[in-house]
Amino acid sequence: MSVVDLTLRFRRDGWPGTDRGLVVSFDLAGNPLVLTPGGPVTSYDHDAGRACELAQGFATLLDQHAED
Fold first, then answer.
1. Who has the most CB within 10 Å: 3, 33, 41, 60?
2. Cα(52)–Cα(55) distance, rounded to whole angstroms?
3. In what order do the strands lie in the sheet with 50-55?
4. What does each C-alpha distance from 17 to 46, 62, 63 come to in angstroms?
5. How do residues 1-47 score in pLDDT, each as one tens digit?
6. Distance of CA 30 to the CA centre of its chain
């Protein structure tokens, strides 16, 4: 599935925060990981009903989760 397909799917389903960014992935709970125009990577936690910032940018997110 491409970034475009993911983004369109989450937008079509009405997920908050996906209307202005690109959905680059999703977590195990099905929450979208969104790369926003300003750079931060955010997610909307459907269980908690709120958005949260995961990293200042995509490179930071990769640094946090990629093994050396």
1. 41
2. 9
3. 22-26, 32-35, 41-45, 50-55
4. 12, 21, 23
5. 899 999 999 999 999 989 989 999 999 999 999 999 888 999 999 99
6. 10
3-class SS letters over the chain? CCHHHHHHHHHHCCCCCCCCCEEEEECCCCCEEEECCCCCEEEEECCCCEEEEEECCHHHHHHHHCCC
* Amino acid in position 67: E
Tokens of 63: 């640094």
Q: Residue 58 and residue 36: Cα distance in Å, rounded?
A: 10
- Helix and strand totals (H; E) in the chain: 2, 4
Mean pLDDT of the chain: 92
